[in-house]
Design a protein that fits this description.
Blueprint lengths: L4 H64 L50 H4 L14 E7 L28 H9 L8 E5 L4 H7 L8 E3 L5 H16 L4 E4 L5 E3 L1 H15 L4 E6 L9 E8 L9 E7 L4 H10 L2 E11 H11 L1 H13 L3 H11 L8 H11 L3 E6 L2 E3 L4 H5 L10 E2 L6 E4 L5 E4 L5 E4 L4 E5 L4 E5 L6 H10 L7
Parallel strand pairs: 1-2, 1-4, 2-3, 6-10, 12-14, 13-15, 14-16
Antiparallel strand pairs: 4-9, 5-11, 6-9, 7-8, 7-9, 8-10, 16-17
Length: about 500
């Protein structure tokens, strides 16, 4: 029996359709397989590049180590360095953060101009004395926080700024003092700290004048700490320009740092609140960002620009989009301004805080009156960061400027960050302390702190964080190192506050 033409045509159509689907499926499978091959190739290339970069970093550190010899003659990182003689400007430190990849875009604005106040101009300028001193410039070093993400290495009573985390025989606060001293003097360098840290700071900084150590009764965040220093210094010197620099950050490229600060002072003299923006080396989710605005056009400050806005810590995708524009810098929390300018901003945006700090500043040098006023006013001061209190609202009306920086910077915010700053052999963990106490086999990456004196043995584990102290032990991974503060909170909740 013959098949009707309509059915024959339908059957052929179905067969062609099935064949088309099969071909499409095979094509998709082929593309997926090729993608997997490509991904594997990329992973392999990334692994090779990472290894090559690690070897290069090790060679650079070894060279620096050979020239300066800091590692062998240093203290373990968990120990307080011996009290040094009068601090002097330290030698240039090796780079502490990765170089900016070539693929990252540059600023849409013209290229960076060497500041007239930088190294190239010193010999031809009378602005600086031989010591590069900036007249009327006062340094404020807030020394607070417990560094909970570095627990149990960092504790409430002995936080990270008192530790030698670079194995160079100098704590972070000592390095901060050394770095800034060329721009000022001991008489114009001040520190704001809590009662539990005063003794240790005095021991580590013997040249710090007693009247320049401002003890805040309780921690009230950065606005109260910096505002307290501003109120005291404005009372002592109404023309004072102050610069606030954290006690626990690490910086490489001292000359570029000093030039950036000097440029920021020039802008601050024009009644701006000035911050220093760090060129991002990667799309970090751990830092706030600063969006660059138009140039400020102030003499001797060719790089200064208005701050368009401050951005809170972003997620990874947002951070990558920031960097892609070339118009963002990391917010390192460095601020330079006239003391009176900061108090005026406070009066406008936080009037109660301004009034309280002015009253404290007016009586600070009278110890009896100071204690009476502090007891009355300090507990009522608002606990708020300087960014939220004055920097962000002032930026909205064009009164905040930024000097884009070219130096390396790291806030040493967790063990992953710390491990990047330490030397290591290829495919080995970084060791903060005595390397003879660490035995490894088939171990790559990570950081080990042999603080208890016991032998630590690691077999076949990668990227671990092991902090072995006499009274407690922490084990985590580099990927989770930002979350150490969670275990600190848990330890506190379970009654282990004496170990914090």
């Amino acid at each position: 029996m013959s098949v009707p033409p309509q059915l024959s045509s339908l059957s052929a159509g179905q067969s062609n359709s099935q064949l088309s689907v099969e071909l499409m499926f095979q094509s998709i499978m082929g593309m997926m397989q090729q993608s997997q091959i490509d991904i594997a190739d990329l992973k392999h290339e990334c692994s090779e590049l990472k290894q090559a970069n690690a070897n290069l970093e090790r060679q650079l550190r070894d060279n620096n180590q050979g020239y300066n010899g800091y590692y062998r003659a240093s203290t373990p990182g968990f120990m307080t360095p011996a009290v040094p003689s009068s601090p002097q400007m330290r030698a240039k430190s090796p780079f502490l953060s990765p170089a900016i990849p070539n693929s990252l875009p540059t600023l849409s604005a013209p290229v960076h101009h060497p500041s007239p106040l930088g190294d190239n101009a010193i010999s031809n300028s009378s602005y600086f004395s031989a010591a590069r001193d900036i007249p009327g410039f006062y340094v404020v070093i807030p020394a607070g926080g417990a560094g909970t993400r570095l627990w149990p290495l960092s504790r409430e009573g002995h936080p990270k700024f008192l530790l030698d985390l670079t194995l160079k025989g100098r704590s972070l606060i000592q390095a901060t003092w050394d770095r800034l001293l060329p721009l000022t003097s001991a008489s114009r360098t001040t520190i704001v700290a809590g009662p539990s840290h005063v003794t240790s700071i005095r021991e580590q900084l013997p040249d710090l004048l007693s009247e320049n150590l401002f003890c805040e009764p309780t921690a009230k965040d950065s606005m109260a700490a910096i505002g307290l220093a501003a109120a005291i210094l404005a009372h002592r010197d109404p023309d004072a320009v102050i610069g606030s620099f954290a006690a626990d950050h690490m910086i490489s490229g001292d000359d570029a740092f000093l030039a950036a600060v000097a440029e920021a002072v020039e802008v601050a003299r024009n009644d701006y609140l000035v911050t220093i923006g760090i060129a991002p080396s990667h799309p970090s989710t751990g830092f706030g960002y600063i969006r660059l605005g138009e140039p400020v056009n102030i003499k001797n400050a060719p790089n200064a620009r208005l701050v368009s806005s401050f951005k809170e810590k972003p997620d990874a995708r947002t951070a990558a989009s920031y960097i892609a524009t070339g118009k963002y810098r990391w917010n390192a929390g460095m601020f330079v301004m006239k003391a009176t300018t900061l108090l005026k901003f406070l009066e406008e945006y936080k009037p109660e805080m301004s009034e309280g700090l002015r009253k404290i500043g007016a009586v600070w040098d009278d110890e009896k009156e100071r204690n009476i006023i502090l007891e009355k006013i300090w507990p009522e001061l608002e606990k708020i960061p300087i960014d939220n209190a004055v920097a962000e609202p002032a930026a909205e009306v064009g009164r905040v400027a930024v000097v884009p920086a070219t130096f390396g910077w790291d806030d040493v915010g967790d063990f992953s960050s710390l491990s990047d700053l330490l030397p290591a052999e290829a495919n080995q963990p970084r060791v903060l302390g005595d390397p003879s106490l660490v035995l490894t086999d088939q171990v790559a990456g990570g950081i080990v702190v042999p603080g208890s004196g016991r032998l630590i043995s690691c077999l076949g584990v990668d990227d671990l964080v092991i902090v072995d102290m006499p009274d407690c032990l922490l084990v985590t991974t580099r990927a989770r190192s930002q979350e150490v503060k969670r275990i600190v909170k848990k330890a506190k909740d379970h009654g282990w506050k004496k170990l914090l």
